Amino acid sequence: QVQLVESGGGLVQAGGSLRLSCAASGRTFSRYVMGWFRQAPGKEREFVAAITWVGERLYYVDSVKGRFTISRDNAKNTLYLQMNSLKPEDTAVYYCAASMSQSSLFATDGYAHWGQGTQVTVSS
User: Fold this and answer.
1) pLDDT tens per residue, range 35-79
2) How far is CA 38 from CA 1, 27, 44, 64, in A?
3) 122 forms bridges with which residues in the sheet?
């Protein structure tokens, strides 16, 4: 079992930047494929980005390509999401998630472990 705790959310103006972190404890972090998802009010939780075990493959939803960067530090058991050029439509609760398989990286049911989420609000 792995426990995940997100941090780094907040209120930022459009065009600004934030870096989210996800600290993992429990079983070996490097055994997990990691993902970021987000959920805006009244909408379903959606895939944002994913990274494989040692960062050899990165995946992004089209709407964040070129603006967001996912990374991980296995020595620190931490996942990151660097978010630049933020837009009001990026406003959501952001969740990190862990999976031992990359068979379903883009779907919520592909991940067995979730953090509690961190709020990101982008003002116009």
Assistant:
1) 999 999 999 999 999 999 999 999 999 999 999 999 999 999 999
2) 22, 24, 8, 12
3) 12
